[in-house]
């Protein structure tokens, strides 16, 4: 039994969350997986998994060597393909992180296309609005909306996300329409808790930048939930293009403060800085770049608050 087999068992066990999942994927028995992991632990002189009757938890040492192990396997598979005179094909598990609402609408069609193109790859998708730690969670690539903080991650700009200040006609009926951002202080606003500062909204106009303090009955950390709260007439919200578009077209939503604009947010693909990016991650990134124009559709025709019709 060679070290490549041991590394492959280790990577599959960590990605699949169990020895049985690794055994099923590799087409061998679970005792063989256990033996290979034990040989690797002996080779490295450290425990790689904490095992109980119900759970398999990678140790800190396992997380440290995981990325390097994947690079070794990818290099080995590419070398084998070159000897076989065949173009290398992506294999293994591609673990990606995507924002929940955005991912459902725009990333899932790209993933479907990717899986059809590369059936040898298993895609493990983590939906979350939070910025996850890619290295700790074994994520090869993630999409992030918003300004990036300084980090060791490599970032590839894909586009921007337009945003709209909206409310339903039902909510606005009988209330004084906001004329300036300062007027929002007398309105119920739906707060997106992941923005910082969450209770300040910034606008631009021909007169410069305006920052308004807002408050409201509900704070949420998910764009779809924010859209639903708006459609339930709970207040005014800043919705991303994909959440606002249909309602603005149908008249179920109206554009508030149309003379003021809200800055678009950058959209990036980010991935750990490594010497060798796996072929599966590289091919998926290439597909994202090719399809990036679909992530930023043309802004919807908006209905202005107070307009007739």
Automatic annotation (TrEMBL):
NodD regulates the expression of the nodABCFE genes which encode other nodulation proteins. NodD is also a negative regulator of its own expression. Binds flavonoids as inducers. Keywords: DNA-binding, Transcription, Transcription regulation. InterPro entries: LysR-type_TF_proteobact-type (IPR058163), LysR_HTH_N (IPR000847), LysR_subst-bd (IPR005119), WH-like_DNA-bd_sf (IPR036388), WH_DNA-bd_sf (IPR036390). CDD domains: PBP2_CrgA_like. The keyword DNA-binding applies. SUPFAM superfamilies: Periplasmic binding protein-like II, Winged helix' DNA-binding domain. Pfam families: HTH_1, LysR_substrate. Belongs to the LysR transcriptional regulatory family. Gene3D superfamilies: 3.40.190.290, Winged helix-like DNA-binding domain superfamily/Winged helix DNA-binding domain. The keyword Transcription applies. Residues 1-59 form the HTH lysR-type domain. This is LysR family transcriptional regulator.
């Amino acid at each position: 039994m060679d070290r490549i087999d041991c590394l492959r068992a280790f990577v599959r066990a960590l990605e699949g969350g169990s020895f049985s999942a690794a055994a099923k994927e590799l087409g061998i028995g679970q005792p063989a997986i256990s033996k290979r992991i034990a040989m690797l632990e002996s080779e490295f002189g450290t425990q790689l998994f904490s095992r109980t009757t119900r759970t398999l938890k990678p140790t800190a040492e396992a997380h440290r060597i995981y990325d390097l192990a994947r690079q070794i396997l990818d290099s080995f598979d590419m070398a084998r393909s070159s000897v076989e005179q065949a173009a290398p094909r992506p294999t293994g598990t591609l673990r990606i992180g995507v924002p929940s609402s955005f991912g459902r609408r725009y990333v899932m069609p790209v993933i479907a296309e990717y899986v059809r193109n590369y059936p040898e790859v298993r895609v493990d998708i983590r939906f979350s609005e939070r910025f996850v730690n890619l290295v700790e969670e074994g994520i090869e690539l993630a999409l992030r909306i918003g300004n990036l903080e300084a980090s060791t991650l490599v970032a590839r700009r894909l586009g921007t996300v337009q945003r709209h200040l909206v409310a339903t006609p039902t909510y606005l009926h009988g209330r004084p329409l906001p004329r300036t951002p300062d007027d929002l202080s007398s309105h119920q606003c739906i707060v997106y808790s992941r923005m910082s500062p969450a209770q300040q909204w910034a606008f631009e106009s021909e007169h410069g930048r305006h920052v308004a303090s807002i408050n409201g009955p509900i704070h949420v950390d998910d764009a779809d939930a924010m859209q639903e709260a708006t459609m339930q007439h709970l207040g005014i919200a800043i919705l991303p293009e994909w959440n606002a578009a249909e309602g603005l077209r149908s008249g179920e939503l109206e554009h508030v403060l149309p003379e003021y604009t809200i800055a678009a947010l950058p959209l990036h693909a980010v991935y750990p800085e490594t010497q060798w990016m796996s072929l599966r991650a590289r091919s998926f990134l290439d597909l994202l770049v090719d399809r990036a124009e679909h992530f930023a559709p043309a802004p919807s025709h908006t209905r202005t608050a107070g307009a007739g019709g």
